[in-house]
Amino acid sequence: MPPEALVIGSGFSSLSSACYLAKAGFSVTMLEKNHQPGGRARQLRDQGFTFDIGPTWYWMPDVFENFFADFGHRVSDFYQLSRLDPSYRIYFDQYKYEDIPASKEELYRLFEKYQPGSTSLLKSFLKQAGMTYNLAVKEMAFKPGYSLFEFVTPQTMTNAHLFVQSLRRLVRSKFKHPYLISLLEFPVLFLGAKPGDTPAFYSFMNHADLEMGTWYPDGGMYSVVEGMLKLASDLGVTIHTDIAVGGLEVSDANVRNVITSSGNYAPDVVVSGADYQHTESLLPIEYRNYSEKYWSKRTFAPSALLFFIGLNKKLTTVLHHTLFFDSSFDNHAEAIYDHPSWPEQPLFYINVPSVTDPTVAPIGNECMTILIPIAPGIEDTAEIREKYFLDTIRRFEYLTGEKIIEHIVIKHSYCVNDFTKDYNAYKGNAYGLANTLFQTGYFRPGIRNKKVKNLFYTGQLTVPGGGVPPAIISGKIVAGEIIKKINIDEYAA
Ligand SMILES: Cc1cc2nc3c(=O)[nH]c(=O)nc-3n(C[C@H](O)[C@H](O)[C@H](O)COP(=O)(O)OP(=O)(O)OC[C@H]3O[C@@H](n4cnc5c(N)ncnc54)[C@H](O)[C@@H]3O)c2cc1C
User: Fold this and answer.
1) I want to staple 5 with a disulfide (CB 3.0 to 4.6 A). Which of 26, 186, 254, 426 is the partner?
2) Are residues 236 and 310 in the same domain?
3) Ligand 1 centre from 81 Cα, in Å?
4) Ranges for the Amine oxidase domain (predicted)?
5) Which pLDDT belongs to residue 32?
6) What is the position in ligand 1's atom list of the atom closest to the CA of 14?
7) Which is the closest atom of ligand 1 to the Cα of 422?
8) What is the model's pLDDT at position 155?
9) Is 471 in the pocket of ligand 1 (CB under 6 A)?
10) Whole-number Å distance between alpha carbons of 368 and 400
11) CB of 248 closer than 6 A to ligand 1?
């Protein structure tokens, strides 16, 4: 009999680890508490409108391609991708916006418009960003994070200054115009930390943005989930939804009994892609890697207030991705990280995939998601959501000159309380832990339980970090460590 692996959750990290374990010969069962698999990347459908509830930016296409290649496939076997051009739009003020082009020549022209002579600065910045991408995403991201020495290589030592200097300082040492600074500091927001707290090494996110581009999987990001579900199922993974794991019983330093809302399981190995702190709460206290105090001292990435809106008109002033950077980022960041509270005039992001994809909204309609990053754990009430909804719609109308309020035909909101309820997310975080220097690599919560030999953790709270590509890599790392540890042949004998 093959060894049995039980995977908790069905987000990208769980799906990824399940696929690698099944390929290696494990008998894999996934248990997901929600009705729909996909974790934070679930989908909402209502009256002909289709929304991605979580991720909407498809960056680092090489990570997805490499994942499917590990199973003898190509991305195109599961979904069709197209590169967006322009990649996205940024509003800086009323009617004042710039489109970020896919073409490098056009990008240079954009930089020259705001900072004459900046092409050479941009070229050298992007050259360095390409180097850090190769080092970070192709090499370091795949380390299990057991030891600091995994990350001490001749190349990282040569670039040690990029871990000490912040991205903010690096960008501002070269670029002076506030629009260019916003454009170059924006990508690290995906890492959940302030540019001032993010090492310059993370400029690889600029490489991902400006060199590799923004892509769109037809049908939305949920097509990626469906592709991975299909692959998992083809590999023999059994996927059960509507089953929550409620406890992990330990004896002889191993999880021997997994208690669920629908019976018990006794696997040989357990991988949890559920939020780390929640997984630990399923264990008796003496077997947890980290205390409540540890979690309370971590810097969590933001939570988010989201609105999913159907409009009975087509929009003319936005692209597939539009960022609204018309107010102070520093003030907004302070309300997220320094004094957790509702921000006064937050930056926001709008996703309108129906600009590109006619299948996600009825003809002549538009489906629109509004995302406002907020501090995790802050008060979440219907009144607060409505206030921010009206404020944001007003700001949208003012900045773009386009009326939408009377065209809203459906509306859903999603915030801190939903993240907590749906995903067991600590303080209702959306993106896991921030990738600050001391929450990177070896310093992140570990993938192994130190006292329970057959319990492993994957996902955005452990290595390498938050975001869809890192979650997929995380699943590969953890499966690799389990495959090294468990001798499949012994089970076959
Ligand atoms: C609003 C939002 C926007 C984002 N935008 C982007 C983006 O544009 N691009 C990008 O790359 N990334 C983005 N991200 C981040 C990305 O979505 C996540 O990093 C990634 O999906 C996390 O995957 P995961 O496997 O680590 O965790 P999750 O997707 O959270 O999966 C964990 C799963 O475990 C399940 N679970 C929890 N407890 C239990 C239990 N007791 N029993 C059974 N199951 C349980 C949960 O229901 C969930 O399905 C976004 C995230 C959010 C929330």
Assistant:
1) 26
2) no
3) 22
4) 15-483
5) 98
6) 25
7) 47
8) 84
9) yes
10) 15
11) no
